[in-house]
Every structure is written in structure tokens, then in C-alpha cells.
Amino acid sequence: MSSDTPDGRTVDESTDDPLIQTEIDAEPSPSRDAERTETIVRTKDLSVYYGDDRALDDVTFEIPENRVTAMIGPSGCGKSTFLRSINRMNDRIDAARVEGDLYFHGKNVYDDDVDPVALRRKIGQVFQAPNPFPKSIYDNVAYGLRVQGTDEDVDLDDAVERALRGAALWDEVSDQLDESGLDLSGGQQQRLCIARAIATDPEVILMDEPTSALDPVAASKIEDLIDELVDEYTVIIVTHNMQQAARISDKTAVFLTGGELVEFDDTATIFEDPTDPRVEDYITGKFG
Amino acid sequence: MSTKREELFADVDLSQEKLLNRLFHGLLAAASLFGLVMLALLLLDVLWESSQALLTFDIDIGQFLTGTSSSRAEQAGFGASILASIWLMVLTAVLAFFIAVGCAIYLVEYAPRNRVTRLIEANLANLAGVPSIVYGLLVLALIVNDAGLGSVILAGAIALALLIVPIIIVASIESIRAVPSSVRDGSYAMGATKWQTIRKVVLPQAMPGILTGTILALARAIGETAPLIMVGTLLHATRYPMGPLSDFSAMPTQIYNWTYQADRMFNGLAALGIVVLLVALIALYVLAGYLRRRYETEGGTISNV
Ligand SMILES: Nc1ncnc2c1ncn2[C@@H]1O[C@H](COP(=O)(O)OP(=O)(O)OP(=O)(O)O)[C@@H](O)[C@H]1O
Ligand SMILES: [Mg+2]
Judging by beta carbons within 10 Å of its beta carbon (0-12, 13-18, 19+), is residue B92 exposed, middle or buried? Predict the structure, then answer.
């Protein structure tokens, strides 16, 4: 559980680790500036229960600012649950109960004086299945600004264009902004949802398997996008795709069944030299 | 080879099952046809009666559609009743719509999930089945007499609204529930409040279904006779209603009053009145169908009443 590991990892392209070469074929993610960044989200003994079933088991770790942090692990190990507990979307599930602490910029978001609505205005989310509103493309992107009441302060047209450019969608939809967001393809819809999330300039963007429903071309567009987003945002992404985690993330957290966080480290370390044998088994596909 | 094939299924005897199949097929078809045949007979009868009336009595259609009723059949028209029905429908729609939609939103989005809520929801369907005359009696006692409103259009509208509120609530609940939770999640995750989510995402998507339900409920209300009789209507609508506080006789009550007059011509007028009422009904159904088709393709879910 050491986020204290110095970030100065070096990833040798010509590594002779057979794991990387043959089984995963991962391109090492480009090392972002080696200097350490601030922690933006920190959990301490975070457990989440659905009724009597525990979905997350005493998770403790720190997520760095302006980095991509990937969550991997077998189905049902609590990745989505963890993501939802960051922006308190778990509040919407009657059976869900959270124990332990989750700090955002040092403030426990489960304190009584934290309004989840305010929290979610700083932490955006992109869901596993694209869920655009049945509104025009323009209104979809403007939605956040409108509900947050900032549409008066900014040039709305400008903000919509900027968000759509940011999500690499502008060129495809610039002449059909009045058409329904539901008429776009699945990949375009997912980028629309990303545009919607970044339009309001949140600090953190949570992504739950954002490319699982997409073809490789659309997926790689979104990966490129994530790479650009971390200049301004912190990205926390759940993925089932090992190569994707290896390609785009700086840090990787591995959850295993039962909601246990078994290892958290630099992505290169996780994929090349994991401490826990179960992690190696999972990554190489022997497990989970 | 061929004999072998023929023998392959020889041990399976299906003749009995097939006979049963055909028997039930026939029975079910007959049962559905029965309804259709009765409907067709009814329509034919109405059309026959009204055409007979037009031939036998010298009825001026224009005067019939615009004039007021009269105790003398030759001068009686349906216009005042048509106008009264329009007033009734508008008032009923306004009264029932806001109460019903507000109630549906509360039940789906705000009410705690407990036994009381479930009990209320389960009994809405029962409420929709209460005989309409009961609502008429209620309004007669509370509004017409106790509150002293008198037998006016507003009182009739209140009775009809009470009658259709449960129907609209049920349709609205279904439409609101049908809005996928993923879309709500999308809204909440953007930092929208509950009311913002309801107003900007849930209601727009549920509205086609709510409107369809409302119109179908109005189609039920427009033909209701018993509650209006309880509230009290004119024997002959001899004056055009000028507003919610006018006395009145709506289409169904005027038709009813015409049918038991001694003068045979009144019976003819009643037949014509039924045609007008049917046309209004069909217009409402067409409107509901149009709304349903128009929005069905746009992801909104439409429910049936
Ligand atoms: N709304 C819910 N109500 C009850 N139990 C739930 C709910 N959501 C998740 N769970 C349970 O919590 C556990 C973790 O679920 P979660 O969705 O977080 O897994 P996940 O790691 O995201 O899985 P996947 O990779 O399949 O998306 C599972 O056992 C699941 O059955
Ligand atoms: Mg998940």
C-alpha cells in the first residue's frame, strides 16, 4: 500500500521480462514528469456494504493528482463500488452503507457538512454504458453548466465547443449540435458523455470501463483523450483491459474478489514486478 | 429410405393435441370477434338511427351543431352542450393533470419505500375502479351543497377530475418509472439536485406517456353521465355556458335527457348527438395515438392506461 514509492520509475523498452513481451504486449506508458504530485483522494479503512454483504474491505490508499490511476480486478471485486463511493453516488443505492474515511483534498467527504451535490460538481463521472440525455448534443454538453448555474458567467457556445474539442468529438458533430445525442454511435455517445463531464471543469474524472462497449478505434481515441486530460484533471479509471491499464495509467490498483485491495503501485511495477503472487496470476490470466 | 423416413415419426400420435389446438384457437378467435362484432353493431345502429332521423325530420345540421336546446324539438340544438363539454374537459384536465402528476412524482421520487407507500400505490388501481356516481355524490354533498357552489360546470369538472385523477396517476407513475436509472445517474453525477434531475431529465422523458394517459383519461371523462346527473344539469341546455360558474348540460347528459322525451324527434336528435360524442372520442384517441407514435421513437416510453 505504498504510494510513497518514488515515482522515478524507468521503463526499459527492451525489457526481457517475458510477461510484458508475450502475454500482455503492453507499451509502457510514457513516464509523466517524475516529480511527485499531491494526493487528491485518500481512503482509510474504507469498507462498503450492500446490506450484509461486504463489497469493499478496508481499502487504504492515496490517489495522486494529475495522474491516471487505474483500477483492475476480476468482476464483482468492488471497482465500481469504489468509484461510486468517491463521488457518493452510493448514496443513491438504498442498501449501500459506507464505513471508514474517504478524503478529498484532506476533507472527509462523508462528514455531515459535505453536500454530495457540491462534491459531484468537483468530481465528474463517465459511466460504463454511454448514458446521454435524450436532448440535443448541445444541451447534453451544456447540462452541467446549466444545473450548476454557471451558464450565465461563461459564453455557453464557447464552453460547449471547448468541451466537445476536448473530447475529440467536435469535428464529427459541429454541424449537428441541435440533433439528439441519442442519434450518435456508441463511441460518439461515450465521447459526448466525456464532453459533458469535462464541460464543468471538475477536478477529478471517474471513468467506469469507458471503452468496454467500444470498438478498438473508438477505444484508442478515448485513450488518447485520457492522456491529454491528465494535464488538467485527475483521472481514475476502471478497466478490464490489462493492456489499456498498462498503456494509459501511471498508478494501478489491483482489487481481488472480496473487495480487497491487494496491491497499489506504479503501473510499471505492477505489470513487471508485482509483490503479491496473486497479482501476477491475475495479470497473466491464471486467475479471475 | 423413404419408407424409413415415413416411419420415423410414426410412433408419435399428435392428432388429439392438434384437435385441441384447433379447438382453442377457434374459441379464442370467437371470443375476440364477439367484442368486435358488438362494437360494429353498435356503430351501425347509431349511424342508422341518425340517418333515419335526418331523413324523417327536417334537421338543419348547422343549426343542430351551434344552437341551444329547447323544449320544442324543432328548435333544439346541441351547440350549448358541446360548448359545455369543452369547458368541462378543459377544467377537468387542468384540475386533474397537476394534482395527478404531482402525486405521481411524489410517490416515485420522494415517498419513502415503506408499507404505507406500497399500500397507496396498490389502491390507486382500486380507486380507478370506483363507480363514477360515487364521485358525483361526493361533489354533490361537499361542493354543490355544503360549499354552496351550485350545479355549475366547475362542480361537474371537480367530479370528473376526481374520477380520472387515479387513472392519470397510474399512467404517470409508469412513465416516470420507465425513465432509465442510468439517465438519472448521469444527471446526479453532473452535480444536479433532485428537483433539477426531475425537472430537466425525468419529466421531459416521461411527459409523452403522461400526456397520452391524460388524454385517454379525458376520453373516459367526456362520456361520463352519472356524476354529472348527480351534480345536477339542465333538462335542456337553453343557454350557452359563459364560464366555469354557469349552469349547464354536457353532451352525454343532454343526450340522456333527449332520449326519454315523448316527442320522437328528440330521439332522433339524441342519435345525432351520439355521433357527435363519438367523433369527439375518436378525435381524442387519435390525438393519443399520434402522441404515442411521435415520441415512441425518441426513447420516451409510453404506457397504456
Ligand atoms: N446496487 C447493488 N446492490 C447490491 N449489491 C451490489 C450492488 N452493486 C454491486 N453490488 C455487489 O457488490 C459487489 C461489487 O460490485 P461492483 O459492481 O463494485 O463490482 P465491479 O468490480 O465493478 O465488477 P465488474 O467488473 O463486473 O463491473 C458485487 O458482489 C455485487 O454483487
Ligand atoms: Mg463495475
Answer: buried
DSSP string, B216-274: HHHHHHHT--HHHHHH---SS--S---STTS----HHHHHHHHHT-SSHHHHHHHHHHH
The second-level CATH assignment, the architecture, of B67-304 is Orthogonal Bundle (1.10)
Torsion angle (degrees, nearest 10) of CA A215, A216, A219, A224: -160
Q: Which residues contact B86 (CB under 8 A, 6 or more apart)?
A: none
Determine the structural domain holding residue A105 and report its residue range.
2-283
B196 touches chain A (CB under 8 A): yes
Residues with Cβ–ion distance below 5 A, ligand 2: A 80
pLDDT (tens digit, 9 = 90+) per residue, B162-178? 999 999 999 999 999 99
Residue-wise pLDDT tens digits, B91-131: 999 999 999 999 999 999 999 989 999 999 889 988 888 99
Report ipTM for this prediction. Answer: 0.84
In a domain, A204, yes or no: yes
Residue of chain A whose Cα is closest to the Cα of B180: A131
Mutation test of the interface with chain A: which of B179, B188, B190, B298, choosing the one with the most A Cβ atoms within 10 A? B190
The CATH number of whichever domain residue A125 belongs to comes to 3.40.50.300
Residue of chain A with shortest Cα separation from B299: A134
